[in-house]
Amino acid sequence: MSTTITRPSLLYEGNDWDFAMIQRIHDAIAVIAHGEFKLDTYANQIEIITTEQMLDAYSSVGMPLFYKHWSFGKQFAHHEMGYRKGLRGLAYEIVINSDPCISYIMEENTVTMQTLVIAHAAFGHNHFFKNNYLFKQWTDANGILHYLDFAKTYIAECEQRYGHLAVERTLDAAHSLMTHGVHRYPRKRKPDLASEDRRERDRRLHQEKIYNDLWRTVPVTGKAKVSGGDEERRRALLELPQENILYFLEKTAPRLASWQREILRIVRHIAQYFYPQGQTKLMNEGCATYCHYRIMGRLFDTGQINEGSYLEFLQSHTNVVMQPEYDDRRYSGINPYALGFAMMQDIERIATKPTDEDREWFPEIAGVGDPFGVLSHVWANYRDESFVSQFLSPHLIRQWKLFQVVDDGEKAKALRVEAIHDERGYRNLRRALSRQYDVSWTDPDIQVVDVDLGGDRRLMLQHNVLNGILLQERETRDVLQHLADLWSYDVSLREIDPATGAVLKEHTATARPHFLTA
Amino acid sequence: MNIIDRRLNSGGKSLANRQRFLRRAKALAQKAVRNHSKDRSIKDFDQGGEIKIPVDSLREPRLHRAPTGGHREGLLPGNKKFVQGDTIPKDKQGGGGSGAEGAEDGDGEDDFRFVLSQDEYLDLFFDDLELPDLAKKTLASTESTSLHRAGYSVSGSPANLSLTRTMRNSLSRRVALNRPKSEDLQALEAEIEALATEGDDPARLEELRATLSHLLARIKRVPFIDPIDIRFRRFQAVPRPVAQAVMFCLMDTSASMTEHMKDLAKRFYALLYIFLKRRYRHVEIVFIRHTHEAEEVDEDTFFHSAETGGTVVSSALEEMVRIAKLRFPMEDWNIYAAQASDGDNSASDTTRSAALLQQGVLPLCQYFAYLEVGRESEATQMGFIPRATELWRTYEAIAEGGQRFAMCKVNHRNEIYPVFRRLFERKGHSAQGEPA
């Protein structure tokens, strides 16, 4: 890249920043990111906020606006407490998957930190949001802010119309099922959140238009005959089995008011919006960390930041990508920043300086010489689980000294070391790590299997137990109570061993009458 | 790229969430606040504080797998000595899973701690307390009034003329009665003039002149502004509630009052002061100490100087009545009084005190609280009814009759809050709950 615009002067010096400086830094980074690294990003919108506003943003899952619910207040109180006591610091930045891509940066950051944050969030995460297939498939970056605005107004309106308590209880129930309110397989329709509030408004207008009080007075004649028999057809109409419990309730629950269905729908949409983020945490952070590392390096190489700033950057960078070992007191699982960054760097190494082992393991990328080309492909087409199972190299396994421990349950007296970082262990370890990121492995598989519409209207769910790990009993009871309130009849959940079909445990709950409309 | 400075946007976006959270946790938070306030000193009482409540009621349940049981695999970094096939004995709990999982679990069962702001703290503390007779008094003593805008009237002083309203009426009347516009008249006159100079269409000229005179007559009949249009801004005298209170602190400072007793009294006064401050915009305090004679003193002297002499309660009551008459007329002030004493009074003064209290003091006051402070050791004498003191017996008779009078005995610091609560408890609906 001989045509790179090299600026003789530094972008900044010292610690303080101003708006012109941020603009200058952003432009300089954009030249490197778009020009040299061929990143493809949404337009950026950088917002400067205070500590207090950062705490606010924390409690509404990082979104600039959100509907009101006590659980967010609880989170806020919790974060604030931790922050005041100095137990934890605040994130330097929050970035939102929207178009334009909004990054919040804190006013306290030094200018080097702002540079780092812009490189990390406004370019790294931004590129990932725009290009990864999961985000493309599942989320609507154009519509999200508009939709949240609608959700907020709608729920506030419901509180006015139907009372705080009723709305709060409905939201509580919906939140408890949020983890099972997503479609895991793509559907035909592209997500379009912008039309959501139009749809809801139209529906209400239509209802108001066709409302006629006379219908109330029409005497009810004998019930329509239930067409019995066609079992297959009935199940197909109900879309059973259904793993999206909130969807099922929204469409089928017999006694919910239409505003309650709309609330379920809102919670479901938001869960769906966040669904890809849970599955790409490792890659997303790896991508952003790798980008900021390369960008800061280039800024330093081209003389746009000085040694002092570079050292300051390196210090916070190494803090972020630190991975304590398993016997370290600080160990609390695998750090996604560390592993993500290590894997991206490893791919760069394979693409530029492969060993014989790499050529054998990764014939298609070894030695192709263009790290950003390879990585862009990776960032676009994988999620954590497939990413690890494709690209975790023996080299990295050795470097991290990974090993696998197995617990065979109650009977076993000791844990067994199943695999270590050697020739026999590589594939095992890679599979095991990939499973840790696989949602179908980590989330319990719970489905609505049937509903007894002819009889007592009991809703039947099933948990296909994996590896003999049952559900946490107490919380399951609470969630089931919420589920029963929404369904308004009895609910049962069977935990079934898929191999034998044996019922391992059964939970039941009975609806509290009129609980949600209190 | 856009850079937006959001720093000036108001913070506290999650205030509504926080309020919902507190409402949800209200009963628990209230309990926590009361427990917490027991071992707080008066000085930092009206600050916020950190409280903890059991996390149970604030659980957000989710469907997830149990942390124990079944077949589990874990992948860890940093192997040092293990080779494939090694075994690691389980620890006593057996359950399996890695240490990190155990820690998460422990966290979950912990109490939930959070910080309340001063307002939130006091709100919770004083939530079901009420100043007795507050409503009655403010209604009864509304002699001061203030003027408030109250619509429009057809009469009033010229200073209060509402131009906009008047002109609006005038305009609509002119439109309704079809008053000719001055532009039309001018156009008509110009046309007449033109016709008159040319002189070739006399018939038309005649017709126009007739129209003109007709219009002129109409303009006279329909005036631009009619008395009927005129509106005045109307003001109404609105009774202003009395929003100031004075608090009389009476205390026996004779030698029999120990430091401990004074400390108890001080705590009680401080609570009362904070409480009054939350209800009234402006609160004054008057300190009156007495031995055998009474005088008004400043706060420091009140609590810290020791004196010798006999004990004549009526002297303090007299002083209070005098000061109230002089500086705090009943119409303008809500008067509260709290008296602290160890119960001694000279026998000859008893009847005089009682009479003075009933006829002089109580009619003045919103509320009179008598706090008898005892020795710390007295509280421990279980099953032994302490001999009622001179003053207690005197006041007991009064308390039976009146509602504005309350009395309590306190021996230990711990009892201050419960006693205070008992004195000011909202009468009638003590079982307060969230309307469901």
TrEMBL record, chain A:
Coiled coil: none
Record-annotated SpoVR-like C-terminal domain positions: 444-497
Start and end residues of each SpoVR protein-like N-terminal domain: 16-440
Alphabetized InterPro entries for the sequence: Spore_V_R, SpoVR-like_C, SpoVR_N, Ycgb-like
Domain of life, source organism: Bacteria
Pfam families reported for this sequence: SpoVR (PF04293), SpoVR_C (PF24755)
Xref: PANTHER family: STAGE V SPORULATION PROTEIN R
Protein name as annotated: SpoVR family protein
Species in which this protein is naturally found: Lichenifustis flavocetrariae
UniProtKB/TrEMBL annotation, chain B:
Transmembrane segment boundaries: none
Listed Pfam families: DUF444
Ranges where the record places region Disordered: 67-110
Protein origin, superkingdom: Bacteria
Protein family: Belongs to the UPF0229 family.
NCBIfam families: PRK05325.1-2, PRK05325.1-3
Protein name, UniProt field: UPF0229 protein M8523_05585
Organism: Lichenifustis flavocetrariae
